[in-house]
Q: What sequence folds into this?
């Protein structure tokens, strides 16, 4: 009888509500995939995590907060477009194509491309050479961003999400389907572990 009493509410909840993942927020040091810089990242991993599971992340790049979702460590894929919602607040749509991109000289293929344009460049004005350099660099950077294993909100959207996370109870996400993965959704708790991990990363609560 006691077993029935315990099990029935769980079955009812599974049929009528979104189950919150038990999760441990942690701070880790990583080399950012786009900027190439070392950064401290806060993320939540669930005991039910698999090589196909996405996880939420918060970090700072060039002094600005970023909030989003990361693909699995064992199977890094471009995340694509995502939706994030804190409690019952507005659901944000974050498109990977809208992410700011960074010009990375150490992995920029521009010099090799420009090598084939030597005769043209030798007879071009400085402004034209600079414009050609910028166009190749921009195209390279956009290609790198499109392959990023995370999609994050930046700017005012990230600040708004971050403020809501500090006061909220849970983060709900939806990963929209792409050619590489199906649509998936889930919910993570925003608890003391989250705040402690932010503190360990030195991420200020007052952005």
A:
């Amino acid at each position: 009888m006691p077993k029935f009493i315990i099990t029935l509410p769980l079955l009812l909840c599974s049929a009528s509500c979104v189950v919150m993942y038990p999760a441990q927020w942690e701070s880790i040091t990583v080399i950012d995939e786009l900027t190439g810089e070392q950064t401290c990242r806060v993320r939540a991993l669930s005991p039910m995590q698999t090589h196909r599971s996405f996880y939420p992340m918060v970090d700072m790049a060039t002094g600005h907060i970023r909030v989003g979702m990361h693909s699995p460590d064992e199977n890094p894929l471009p995340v694509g477009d995502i939706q994030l919602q804190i409690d019952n607040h507005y659901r944000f749509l974050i498109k990977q194509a809208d992410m700011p991109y960074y010009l990375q000289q150490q992995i920029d293929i521009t010099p090799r491309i420009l090598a084939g344009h030597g005769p043209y460049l030798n007879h071009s004005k400085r402004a034209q050479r600079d414009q050609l350099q910028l166009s190749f660099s921009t195209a390279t950077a956009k290609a790198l961003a499109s392959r990023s294993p995370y999609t994050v909100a930046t700017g005012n959207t990230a600040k708004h999400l971050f403020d809501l996370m500090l006061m909220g109870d849970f983060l709900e996400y939806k990963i929209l389907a792409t050619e590489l993965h199906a649509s998936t959704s889930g919910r993570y708790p925003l608890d003391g572990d989250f705040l402690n991990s932010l503190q360990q990363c030195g991420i200020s609560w007052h952005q």
About this structure: The first helix runs from residue 2 to 16. The longest strand covers residues 24-31. Confidence is low (pLDDT under 50) at residues 1-18, 103-116. Helices lie at 2-16, 110-115, 118-122, 126-146, 155-167, 192-201.
